[in-house]
Design goal:
Largest sheet: 11 strands, mixed
Shape: elongated
Distance between the termini: 61 Å
């Protein structure tokens, strides 16, 4: 009870402070009045009686302060009252100078908001584990390494047999699971839509704290070779959108791919497995997917024992006390056992001492490893750029605070002279800067909410939107950033206050200053300019890299091309049926309004290629000369894609089955196989040296298909009618009169009518193929340009603000100059020249820093030197031009000051 009473007393002392002060004032007044009446009865005059009473009392104000201190100490909250008093003083100061407060809050809000938005992206990409994952530090993706031609490569995709081996022959892990995510069709007919599906083993769900919302997850018995069980667990989102959230969904069926699945459960809300950037619509057993796949019957051995079909990945959970080094050694031992089993099944594989197989447990986040992706590297750099923007904002605000502190010298001196301790004064200044930073942090979160959506669209287009204001990690980051910024920006006025000289400051006017203060302002302006140069140079380099990417001749067009995939979904056709379907699809595609041409496609650049053994007279081994990739196409292919025939001809309807075999080779292939000779008319035997000749009838321009940089692979094209691509039903390339993205749905709906049974078509813009190759440069150009532009605005604003304050301080000096005969132009040149000296120094130091950072940035650029003189010169001119404008405006205003008014200014 005493504790409760004490707490009530403390709260009353805090909340009813004004009432307590009134009670104290009344009580003191009562005692003084009693003493005064006593003195009057003793014969004193009333004025004298009151004076003596007050003197005997010992000073009313002193007693009030002592009583307040005792009351605050008794309540245990003196620091809280001091803080409240400091904040009230700060708010009164902002009311007197609202422009200053608005400028500081807006400047810091931009910096904090940019960093909070970028933190949310980098955190989700490189640091934040998947939602609901149990003990994420102990969970890893497994990567399998092997050496080929002296180069070691890592792969996260391998065979089910390899997965079984690694799980069986290791002891360092308490749990292992296989997984894959794929786009599979849901529904049938025109309503069929591809959606992401989590293809996982039964043990996968045990990695997460995500009990099913309805029903259950599938079991090991339902996930065993050869074909598992056709059961499915729906995601919460699909359950809501497709089934209205009804509980009777259990036991219903849904067609996914070629199989009818029975719904046995609904996953927990928010459960996305390992794919927060592309949440699966459903989860199916990994063995059922494999067992019902057409690939399952393409091998001599059962699919679950073959080492020829690499299609899935693996995650493991380390046992407590097992180090990563020990886990990697255990995995490598298992990898060697697995590879020996592969050698037993395939003696032609490279021997163990050549392949040198090993396996490692890497980060659960795919972007981190085993080698960080280029997109992740660019995102990390952009995060650093956002931090530089925040530093520029801090320098800007610190400069404003410093200038304001100079103008508050007399105020600070008066307060010190009245007895305010320096510690109390410093706490008030620190509270003011911290409150400004916290308000800026709150405003920055609103900026981050908007800016984060734009960043997610660039970096993780499939990710679910995340509310910044409801994300604890981002809120914690923004709060910490605001506090740190408040401390950093509060250093300037604190240093100013600690150096206060009462005698000189009490006599000082607003225009007086000392050398070290102006030097501090110069250093801060220099820092802003230097950092702005670094960001703008980075923006220029990425923009020129992106321009270089777009200038690359691919050997085909992208924007007007759509790719049509024919997904048979279990429908089987004989040779005649396949030929008839292909003819109907081709005819229907060409008849669609806006479609200019169409052609068969069996290989897509950057997605997949075919190869066949080639034999050429006079060459012992064609394969020793490099890779030669084959594409089976129909007449009109080169016109459809825009690939130029340099010499000879393309294919015609006469190049049918039974006619002499013909091919078109790329320019690089012709030069490689027949250097110094004309490739047209040359004989190539395909598959075996006993096969009939296939004659070269045309030379096509080289194309890019695996890298935008110079590549060594060569290509050749054969008529599909003469060389069909095995049992594969080919897709189509469709050329439209405009951007293909505007015609996708029209093409899909029309061609779907020609598909038999449950089969369906997918239509994808060809530009998406290239997008994956250019994303890192597009991201770098966009983000560096955005943050560089923001830095430029902040630097310009900081320069303008400081010069404007400085000009206001120098009003008396400038008035004297004008009175002594200086012209307005002289005043303008004086102010602008001083600003340009600082900016030019900043340009030089910034350029040196940018050149020094070039060796780290170079791997992220495309055919662009990190020391490009054009970029450095352009950035320098831009910054100098902005500095001229920012300094000219206050200088022009200063040149119009009336000398008589200026001379009276103090």
């Amino acid at each position: 009870m005493s504790l409760l009473s004490g707490l009530r007393a403390r709260l009353r002392a805090l909340v009813r402070r004004a009432a307590a002060d009134r009670e104290l004032r009344d009580e003191i007044g009562f005692h003084v009045d009693l003493e005064t009446e006593k003195n009057i009865r003793a014969g004193m005059a009333s004025d004298e009686a009151r004076r003596v009473a007050l003197a005997r009392f010992g000073g009313v104000q002193r007693v009030r302060e002592q009583h307040r201190d005792v009351r605050r100490a008794g309540a245990g909250i003196p620091w809280l009252e001091d803080l409240a008093s400091d904040l009230r003083v700060a708010v009164r100061g902002w009311r007197a100078q609202p422009g200053f407060a608005a400028a500081v809050i807006l400047t810091l809000a931009l910096g904090i908001g940019a960093n909070a938005a970028m933190f949310g992206i980098v955190d989700r990409m490189l640091f934040r584990p998947p939602p609901m994952l149990l003990d994420p530090a102990m969970v890893h993706r497994v990567y399998f390494y092997r050496t080929s031609r002296g180069t070691e490569s890592a792969s996260g995709n391998y065979q089910y047999a390899r997965y079984q081996d690694l799980a069986a022959y290791t002891t360092s892990f308490s749990r292992a699971a296989g997984y894959r995510e794929d786009q599979l069709p849901f529904g049938a007919g025109e309503a069929a839509r591809e959606m992401p599906v989590g293809i996982v083993s039964a043990s996968f769900f045990g990695f997460f704290d995500a009990p099913p919302l309805l029903g259950r997850y599938f079991t090991v018995r339902e996930d065993s070779p050869p074909s598992g069980a056709p059961v499915v667990v729906l995601s919460y989102a699909l359950w809501q959108t497709a089934y209205g959230g009804k509980s009777d969904v259990l036991g219903s069926t849904i067609r996914i791919g070629t199989t009818m699945y029975t719904v046995i459960g609904v996953a927990a809300r928010g459960f996305v497995g390992l794919w927060p950037d592309r949440p699966p619509a459903a989860f199916i057993p990994i063995t059922n997917f494999a067992g019902t796949s057409s690939n399952a019957h393409a091998f001599k051995e059962p699919w679950w024992t073959t080492y020829d079909w690499g299609w899935m990945s693996m995650i493991v959970r380390r046992r407590p006390g097992v180090s990563l080094v020990a886990a990697d050694a255990d995995l490598t031992h298992a990898a060697e056992i697995s590879y020996r089993a592969q050698l037993a099944a395939n003696p032609h594989a490279p021997p163990l001492d050549v392949a040198r197989p090993r396996a490692t447990a890497a980060s659960i986040l795919s972007e981190r490893g085993p080698r960080e992706s280029k997109l992740a590297k660019v995102a990390t750099w952009v995060g650093g750029v956002a931090l530089i923007v925040l530093l520029i904002a801090c320098a800007n605000v610190a400069n404003l605070q410093l200038v304001r502190a100079v103008r508050r010298r007399r105020e600070i001196a008066v307060r010190l002279a009245l007895g305010v301790s320096r510690a109390r004064l410093l706490s008030q200044l620190l509270a003011e800067s911290t409150l400004l930073a916290l308000l800026a942090g709150a405003a920055g979160l609103l900026i981050a909410q908007w800016g984060g959506a734009l960043l997610r669209d660039r970096l993780m287009p499939g990710a679910e939107p995340a509310a910044v204001v409801r994300d604890p990690r981002t809120l914690l980051f923004a709060g910490a950033a605001a506090l740190i910024v408040g401390l950093l920006t509060g250093v300037a006025p604190i240093v100013q206050a600690t150096r206060a000289d009462l005698a000189s400051d009490l006599k000082a006017g607003a225009r007086e200053g000392t050398y070290h203060r102006s030097r501090a302002r110069t250093v801060l302006l220099l820092l802003q300019c230097s950092l702005s140069v670094v960001l703008l140079v980075g923006a220029g380099l990425f923009v020129r890299s992106l321009r270089n990417v777009h200038a690359v001749r691919l050997g085909y067009d992208t924007d007007p091309i759509a790719m049509v995939g024919l997904n048979m979904r279990g429908v089987t056709l004989d040779t005649a049926g396949s030929r008839d379907l292909r003819a109907r699809i081709m005819s229907a595609a060409k008849a669609i309004p806006g479609v200019e041409n169409a052609s068969v496609e069996t290989a897509i650049p950057f997605w997949g290629t075919w190869s066949t053994s080639l034999f050429v007279q006079g060459i012992d081994s064609v394969s020793a000369l490099g890779d030669f990739n084959r594409t089976s196409v129909s007449p009109g292919y080169f016109q459809t894609l825009g690939t130029r025939i340099l010499r000879g001809r393309g294919f015609t309807d006469d190049d049918r089955a039974g006619a002499p075999g013909v091919m078109v080779v790329s320019d690089a292939m012709g030069k490689r196989l027949w250097p110094g000779q004309d490739a047209i008319g040359q004989c190539v035997r395909m598959g075996d040296d006993t096969m009939p000749c296939t004659y070269v009838v045309g030379i096509a321009e080289d194309i890019k298909s695996s890298s935008l940089a110079n590549e060594t692979a060569s290509y050749y094209y054969v008529p599909y009618a003469q060389f069909p691509a095995g049992n594969l039903l080919p897709g189509l390339f469709v050329r439209t009169s405009g951007d293909a993205r505007d015609r996708l749905e029209d093409i899909r709906v029309r061609l779907q009518r020609e598909m038999p049974g449950a089969s369906y078509v997918t239509v994808t813009p060809f530009s998406e193929v290239l997008a994956g190759q250019t994303d890192s440069w597009l991201l770098g150009a966009t983000m560096f340009a955005a943050f560089g532009g923001l830095a430029l605005v902040l630097a310009a604003f900081g320069l303008y603000s400081v010069i404007a304050y400085t000009v206001a301080q120098r009003t008396h000096e400038l008035g004297v100059r004008v009175a002594l005969g200086a012209q307005g132009g002289d005043v303008v040149r004086l102010v602008v020249r001083q600003a340009l000296v600082i900016v030019c120094m900043g340009v030089v130091t910034g350029a040196i820093a940018a050149l020094a950072a070039g060796r780290w940035v170079k791997p992220l650029l495309f055919e662009e030197s990190p020391r490009d003189p054009v970029v450095l010169l352009f950035v320098s001119l831009v910054l100098i031009g902005v500095a001229c404008i920012a300094s000219w405006l206050p200088a022009r205003r200063a040149s119009r000051v009336d000398p008589q008014v200026a001379l009276r200014t103090e």
